[in-house]
Amino acid sequence: MGATSTFVFLTLAATVFTFGGILWNRSVRNSEAMARAFYTAATVLSFGALLCILLNVSGVLAESAEFAWWLRIFIYRSWLVIGTGISSVLLILLNKSIEARWQTGSNATRAFVTSPYLLRGLCLSVAMSFICTEIGKVAHNADMRQFFLQSGYPGWFLHFIIVAETVGAVGLLVPKTVLAAALGLSVIMTGAIRTHLHNHDPFSDSLEALHLLILLACIGLIRQLRGRVRSRASSTAGEE
Question: Model pTM?
């Protein structure tokens, strides 16, 4: 199975698994605990990725097949983060249907998708991904500069992207700037995918950018739509 097929398969599998787990739960307390556990897992995996990158660029860990395997696990956060992000968006969009069929399950599902720990975990994971990316770019500045030049960009554009992505990563960690940061980084990731396609690179070269683009879309949608879920919960409680 190729890199692209593996990415798609694991993303779908993680989405189905987390979707079922969140929907199956009927306890609001368990949902809140699950959201905190997600945040903790996202934090551990994110800093694991950062540690791998730092050890590699410092020369402590040499690149090898085993290192590449572990780095891939950390970079994609064992597919836990993307699976949870996509599942949460789907559950928010399906909130009315879930509420009509399972009132208890709806309350538990709502508790998870509106938990601040869900959005914090997603934002922290994506922010750390960009921080790791910037460290890699700075450590391999000559190679990255050559790539940008061969792609038709001026040399200064590499430094602009490094600064823009760093600012965007910090913005994801500030509640008031989450949407703006997600939008700006989404534009950059779309440009990265377009650049690889323009260069006729293998699509697998775009997977990390695609991974981040999906997560940024999830962050934006959850940030915007969770208010509607809360409003509907309040109106339903008022009717009762």
Answer: 0.91
